[in-house]
Design a protein that fits this description.
The protein is an alpha/beta fold. The chain folds into two domains: 148 residues, Response regulator (Rossmann fold, 3-Layer(aba) Sandwich); 273 residues, P-loop containing nucleotide triphosphate hydrolases (Rossmann fold), CATH 3.40.50. It has 17 helices and 13 strands. It has an eight-stranded mixed β-sheet, with helices on both faces. The chain has a five-stranded parallel β-sheet with strand order 2-1-3-4-5, sandwiched between helices. Helix 12 links the parallel strand 11 and strand 12. The longest helix has 17 residues. It is elongated, with a radius of gyration of 24 Å. The structure holds adenosine-5'-triphosphate and magnesium ion. The site of adenosine-5'-triphosphate (ATP) has 18 residues, from helix 6 and helix 14.
């Protein structure tokens, strides 16, 4: 089923409607130079102006082509590459995308270059195709914003957000909801969203999207400081226009104990590229579960309408209050088990959790089947499904475009009673 390559190539620009780009490149390394030339060939219809040199040669140019779309520049080994980069940005036409290349593999430098207006930075050596993908992404970001601004521009003012999706029980539709919400969020914001399956052993997210699991995820969790822009580019697999995903398939025998704060360091690294991350949180790994929840700005807790489901929703709700008091908690009821055949009612859930349910996900077996068959998010495979409609207000509330209310409606007084009420009593005693 998982037949696609580990790192997916975007469609070639030559096959697109896009007109040929006007591009220049200054690269000192001959291997990198030939790779840049190869990658630019189609995009520029062979007219790229590729030269051997560095930013010094670029700074010496007094008049740039007015229609320049793309400049690739080797930052070389000057003493202050960021100052040079900033100076260069003031001279090239504002509409040109600028992508730096260099030998320094340093996150701080990467960030500084973005801050002065570079659209990306790649560390040499890089494989053929890597530059092509970087250009493609920068172009997509520019098309999205309709102008000169690159996708990282918002990073300074817009806070990174992590939405954790967690099921009160297994099989309640957590993965389905995580994928659907991430896809809907990306389309709504027209911004790249990264989905991460934190169940390194048994996660099903990559299978659901027909993408390849990667081995590097565990290593990256072990050593998050080694995650750089190139790594992110290689491991985050593109599924659709604004949806990227990553997940692992660790052997069942291989134990893994994440060191303290591993997940939050890991998420922070990926937030350099993706403002929004949606995490599919495993229930079976309390360490990872806690770490991911701690690092989340938003948590979507999904419960089925069963007694164990509601009991565990309540326990998880308490845990969220303890480990992630600042996070916004959204509650949904599952559609994986048909609510009509269930003994517990939504009102029982609300009474037990002492708050409103934000979203009632309906049962729609045909839509989930279509999503699985196509290996696509449900919102793309079955856009008219009731599941998509039910999730829409929740997605809109996560990141209101220019205001609008959130989804939470805590604080409603409910009287605990009956069997479900007893969960509350017994938990408080613990
Ligand atoms: N709203 C729904 N209506 C009908 N079927 C659903 C719905 N949501 C999920 N399903 C189906 O339920 C099954 C479990 O879904 P999914 O893998 O999303 O659950 P999960 O909670 O992530 O499971 P696990 O605990 O194994 O990770 C799948 O077959 C899926 O297609
Ligand atoms: Mg799952």
């Amino acid at each position: 089923m998982s037949s696609s390559a580990t790192v997916q190539r975007p469609p070639s620009v030559a096959g697109d409607e896009r007109p040929a780009l006007s591009a220049m490149a200054f690269v000192s390394d001959t291997v990198a130079l030939s790779r840049v030339s190869a990658d630019l060939f189609n995009m520029t219809l062979g007219k790229a102006n590729v030269r051997e040199g560095t930013i010094e040669a670029a700074l010496a140019i007094s008049e740039w082509p007015r229609d320049l779309d793309l400049l690739i520049v080797d930052i070389g080994n000057t003493s202050d590459p960021v100052a040079d980069a900033a100076a260069l940005k003031t001279t090239v036409p504002g509409t040109a995308l600028v992508i730096g290349v260099g030998r320094i593999n340093d996150v701080a430098l990467y960030r500084d270059l973005l801050a002065v207006g570079f659209n990306d930075y790649l560390t040499m050596p890089f494989a053929e195709g890597v530059m092509g993908r970087a250009v493609e992404r920068a172009l997509e970001a520019r098309e999205r914003t309709g102008g000169t601004v690159m996708q990282h521009a918002g990073a300074k003012d817009a806070k990174p957000r992590t939405l954790s999706v967690i099921g009160a029980r297994g099989g309640v539709g957590t993965t389905t909801a995580a994928v659907t919400v991430a896809a809907m969020l990306g389309s709504r914001l027209r911004e790249d969203v990264l989905l991460i399956d934190f169940d390194l052993h048994y996660g099903s997210l990559m299978l659901a999207l027909d993408l390849e699991a990667i081995d590097a995820l565990r290593e990256a969790l072990d050593q998050p400081d080694r995650i750089d822009a190139l790594f992110i580019q290689q491991v985050a697999q593109k599924k659709s226009e604004h949806l990227y995903a990553m997940g692992a398939e660790e052997p069942p025998t291989g134990g893994f104990q994440a060191r303290p704060h591993a997940a939050s360091d890991f998420l922070r690294s990926f937030h350099r590229r993706f403002r929004w991350i949606v995490a599919d949180v495993p229930r079976g790994d309390p360490v990872i579960q806690r770490q991911v929840l701690e690092a989340s700005s938003d948590i979507l807790l999904i419960t089925d309408l069963s007694l164990p489901g509601v009991r565990d929703a309540m326990r998880l709700q308490q845990m969220v209050h303890e480990v992630a008091p600042g996070a916004k908690l959204h509650i949904a009821t599952s559609g994986a088990v048909d609510a009509r055949r269930s003994a517990v009612k939504v009102a029982d859930v609300e009474r037990t959790l002492k708050r409103k349910v934000d979203c009632k996900i309906p049962a729609d077996a045909a839509a989930t089947l279509a999503a699985i068959n196509f290996g696509k998010p449900l919102s793309e495979a079955a856009p008219n499904s009731g599941i998509v409609k039910a999730l829409r207000p929740l997605v809109a509330g996560l990141d209101p475009l220019g205001g609008g209310g959130g989804g939470g409606a805590a604080g409603i007084a409910f009287k605990a009673s009956g069997l479900l009420g007893r969960f509350g009593q017994s938990l408080k005693k613990k």
